Amino acid sequence: MRTLSIALVAVLLSAAALGQAAEKPLALRLSSGTEVVIGPDPAGQMRMFGSSAQPLSAGEIDMVQRFVREHPEAFGPRAAPFDSNQWIRPVDSNRIRFRFLPFASGTQALLNTENGTNQSYSFKARIERGSKSVTTDVCQLVPAKRSVEHWPYPLDWIEITDMHVVPYDETELPRCE
Q1: Helix, strand, coil percent values for the chain (each to nearest 5)
Q2: Would you say residue 6 has pLDDT above 50?
Q3: Is residue 39 part of a domain?
Q4: What burial letters (b/e) apply to 35-52, b meaning 16+ CB within 10 Å?
Q5: Which residues, 6+ apart, have CB-to-CB distance to 59 below 8 Å?
Q6: Which end of the chain has fewer CB atoms at under 10 Å, N or C?
Q7: DSSP 8-state symbol, 82
Q8: Do 47 and 40 form a contact (C-beta atoms < 8 A)?
Q9: Quick check: is 171 in a domain?
Q10: Distances in whole angstroms, Cα of residue 64 to Cα of each of 33, 43, 85, 124
């Protein structure tokens, strides 16, 4: 069983909604095989829930393999659109989900994000393997969509910081930086 290792730093969400700015910046640290969901609890209060990550479904595995094969240009600051197929469940509304997973028998890594809000978000990320740590390009979270960040090598951790609302133009590809 995988040990859950999520460090939550400066996590104070406003009670308003995900569309509002957090009172303090959000920072998360996810180990490989974990996930964090930000959303309302049964009482409607904004909360953060961490757990072991749900494994990828057969549809998600197929989608990632197809995307990597069909879009070799999508790396660094370049995004590429993809269509989720019918085997992938819809994005949960009013929630943002970060799932950090090993892929391809642990030889690669994925950050699967789901943005079930009506706002677009940008964030910064730092990836780590062993004692090495570097910043990495990530793409903005598009409203009511999922996105996948893929690294063709294994990773131990990802740190997500500086998450904030940004404008989104649906006629353009998401901004990656």
Answers
A1: 5, 40, 50
A2: no
A3: yes
A4: bbbbbeeeeeebebebee
A5: 84, 85, 86, 87, 88
A6: N
A7: -
A8: yes
A9: no
A10: 17, 35, 11, 22
Decide: 128 and 7 in contact? Cβ < 8 Å.
no
What tens digit of pLDDT does each residue of 30-78 get?
999 999 999 888 888 888 889 999 888 888 888 888 888 887 777 767 7
Could you tell me the CA-to-CA distances from 121 to 96, 104, 115 in Å, in that order?
10, 28, 9
Q: Tokens at residue 74, please?
A: 């999508």
Number of domains in the chain: 1
CA distance 164 to 172: 19
Question: Residue 59: in which H helix or E strand, if any?
Answer: helix 58-70
Between β-strands 132-136 and 96-103, what pairing exists: parallel, antiparallel or unpaired? Answer: unpaired
Nearest 5 degrees, angle CA 99-CA 61-CA 57?
70
Q: What is the pLDDT of residues 113-167, one digit of tens each?
A: 999 999 999 999 999 999 999 999 998 999 998 888 999 999 999 999 999 999 9
| Residue ranges making up the domain that contains 83 | 6-166
In a domain, 12, yes or no: yes
Structural contact between residues 140 and 85, judged by C-beta atoms closer than 8 angstroms: no
**Tokens encoding 106:** 């642990």
Structure tokens at 15: 């009670």
Q: Is 1 inside a domain boundary?
A: no
Its pTM stands at 0.81
